[in-house]
Amino acid sequence: GENVEQHPSTLSVQEGDSAVIKCTYSDSASNYFPWYKQELGKRPQLIIDIRSNVGEKKDQRIAVTLNKTAKHFSLHITETQPEDSAVYFCAASQRGGATNKLIFGTGTLLAVQP
Amino acid sequence: GAVVSQHPSRVICKSGTSVKIECRSLDFQATTMFWYRQFPKQSLMLMATSNEGSKATYEQGVEKDKFLINHASLTLSTLTVTSAHPEDSSFYICSAVQGLGEQYFGPGTRLTVT
After folding, report:
1. Which of A1, A59, A92, B29 could bond B74 through an S-S bridge, CB–CB 3.0 to 4.6 Å?
2. How does pLDDT run across A58-72, given as a tens digit for each residue?
3. What are the pLDDT digits (tens) for B13-51?
4. Whether the Cβ atoms of residue A44 and residue A101 lie closer than 8 Å to each other
5. Which of B84, B76, B90 is nearest to B19 (CA)?
6. A99: pLDDT confidence band, cut at 50, 70 and 90?
7. Residues of A in contact with B103 (CB under 8 A)
8. What angle is formed at CA A104 by the lines to CA A42 and CA B109, rounded to 5 degrees?
9. Is the dihedral of CA A2, A62, B2, A87 positive or negative?
10. Contact A7, A109 (CB under 8 A)
11. Which of A3, A31, A104 to substitute to test the interface with B, most B CBs within 10 Å?
C-alpha cells in the first residue's frame, strides 16, 4: 500500500521568512496530493492540493510543487506570519480509484517566531 | 465548504465500557465516510472506510470487532469503541465524501478511557 514520508518533523522560522515542507510517496498510482493545516485539537483544514497532471500550483503565499518521476511533492509558504504556526500534513490518494482514501504523512510542526 | 459534525466532542468513560461516536454530513449526502485515529503529536491514521449500506473496510491492524462501524444512511456513520481500555484513548476524526470529491473532516472526538 501507499506510504507517505514527510520532513522535517519540526520547523522554526522567523516571521517573513519562507518555509518548505517535503513529502515523498511510494505508490505511483497516487494522483492527488492535498496539504492540510491542523491547529491543536481542531480538524485538519485543506489549504492547497495538486493533481498529478500538474507540476505546480500557487495560491497567494502558498504553493505546492510535484515531481511525479521522483515521487516528491513540497509545500512552500512565503512571507510567513505567526498565524501560520500549526501542524501541516501532506497526504496522497488515488482519485478515481476504488476507495479515494487518504494516506497522511507524519506531520510538520511549524513555528513562526514573531 | 461542506459541513461535517461529530458527537460527542469529548467523552470520558470507564475501562470496559463501550462508547459510540456519531459522524454526520449536514448539507450533503456522503457516499463514503472515513474514520481516523490520531494520538498526541502524531499523524492521522486511517482506521476504516465506510460505504452506506455495506460493511466497512478496515485497515490492517484495526480490529473490526473492537471498532464497530455502521453507515446506516447517507448522512450518518457511527463508530463504537467496544470494551474500551486506556490505550484506546485518542482523538477520533471522521471525514465524509460525496462521490470521489474532497474529504470534509469532522471536528473530532476526544476519548479518554480511565
Report:
1. B29
2. 999 999 999 999 999
3. 999 999 999 999 999 998 899 999 999 889 999 999 998
4. no
5. B84
6. low
7. 100, 102
8. 30
9. positive
10. no
11. A104
